[in-house]
Design goal:
With about 325 residues, the protein is α/β, with parallel strands linked by helices. The protein is built from 14 helices and 15 strands. The chain has a single domain, classed as Rossmann fold (3-Layer(aba) Sandwich). About 40% of the residues lie in helices and about 25% in strands. It binds S-adenosylmethionine (SAM).
Length: about 325
């Protein structure tokens, strides 16, 4: 998965063309369906800024920022003293992402309300928020399965994918700590997760850590026998070994592990909820209703579709989870 997505010459996320969008593209995201996620984020982050006693500088760091559309929608939605305090930092070494983000963020880059940072750049501690959307599901993950007497990992061999017995080390301890495992149970293990979470959490001096992603609790993923998914041309399947470098690979995010790593970094008030619930709690619903009255019919319908896709359980409402943690 690391090679398929991030090999400097052949990696899917190292190509010069992006995968995001509808026809002719591989998959669409919460950002393709409209600006409501960014608008809800603006309300949520303004309340964080208030809770911190309105600091003069409030930085929003987005690792895995892709095209920068979440930043664009956030910056377009804020106003007044909060907008003056806010700087958005895009962090993603994907060249296609960077190119698209230069365009999407152009007005904000010019006024220095947005800037780029590379993944290798050391993070200076800041007050504000770390926000990610579908970052953790794109981290290289190893599938593991309990066959009844031993753990097996899924590997790519000359003859195709195969399960082979191996010592899962720390992953085995983690899986076993989530309750009894039955034959066929399994999950994925992201080796680099502690390093990435540690770096991000340590940079946050005070404020909110917010992660929005596909995933579930560790126990549910284990019971489901979690696996890798391949996205190509708006189709999704489990044939992760096909079209390496030409298709997106993702793995469900283990939110129990994210929470546990953040707790170990000293963050407090940690909790995960569904995206639908988070939108209903923090989205400016009454304001939206009011504003949409004045939109032309087609545009109004688009906003409603945007809201439905973010909140309906079978769309993104339940399949996406939102984790919040505070420092
Ligand atoms: C699934 S895409 C999501 C992009 C965007 N957030 C969206 O929702 O459209 C994942 C992105 O994470 C980036 N990425 C992967 N590992 C990263 C890391 N350690 N730091 C920053 N970005 C990373 C990839 O280059 C890719 O652009």
């Amino acid at each position: 998965m690391a090679w398929a997505l991030y090999d400097p010459n052949h990696g899917y996320y190292r190509r010069s063309t992006g995968p995001w969008g509808f026809e002719g593209k591989d998959y669409y995201t919460a950002l393709d369906v409209g600006p409501l996620l960014g608008q809800a984020l603006a309300v949520r982050l303004e309340s964080v800024w208030e809770a911190l006693d309105r600091p003069g500088r409030f930085t929003v760091l987005e690792p895995g920022a892709g095209r920068g559309w979440l930043g664009r929608d956030l910056l377009a939605a804020v106003s007044g003293p909060f907008a003056e305090a806010l700087t958005y930092v895009h962090r993603d070494d994907n060249p296609a992402a960077r190119m698209a983000a230069e365009q999407a963020l152009a007005p904000f880059l010019e006024t220095q309300r947005a800037r780029f940072s590379s993944e290798s750049e050391a993070l200076e501690p800041f007050t504000g928020a770390v926000v990610s959307l579908e970052l953790f599901d794109a981290l290289p993950a190893q599938p593991w399965r309990w066959e009844g007497a031993a753990w097996e990992r899924e590997m790519l061999t000359q003859d195709g994918p195969a399960w082979e017995k191996a010592d899962p080390g720390e992953a085995g301890t983690w899986f076993a700590s989530q309750g009894p495992v039955e034959p066929g149970d399994g999950s994925i293990w992201v080796e680099r997760l502690p390093a990435i979470m540690g770096e991000l959490a340590q940079a946050l001096k005070s404020g909110l850590f917010l992660a929005i992603d596909y995933g579930d609790t560790a126990a549910r993923l284990l019971a489901k026998g979690s696996d890798l998914r391949r996205f190509r041309g708006q189709q999704v399947d489990g044939n992760w070994w096909e079209d390496l470098g030409q298709a997106d690979l993702t793995a469900d995010v283990d939110f129990t592990r994210l929470e546990s790593l953040l707790a170990a970094e000293g963050l407090k008030g940690i909790g995960t909820t569904s995206l639908g619930r988070w939108i209903r709690a923090h989205g400016p619903l009454a304001q939206w209703e009011d504003q949409w009255q004045h939109l032309e019919g087609k545009e109004r319908l688009r906003r409603m579709e945007n809201l439905l896709s973010l909140t309906l359980p079978g769309m993104m409402g339940d399949r996406f989870k939102t984790l919040e943690a505070w420092r």
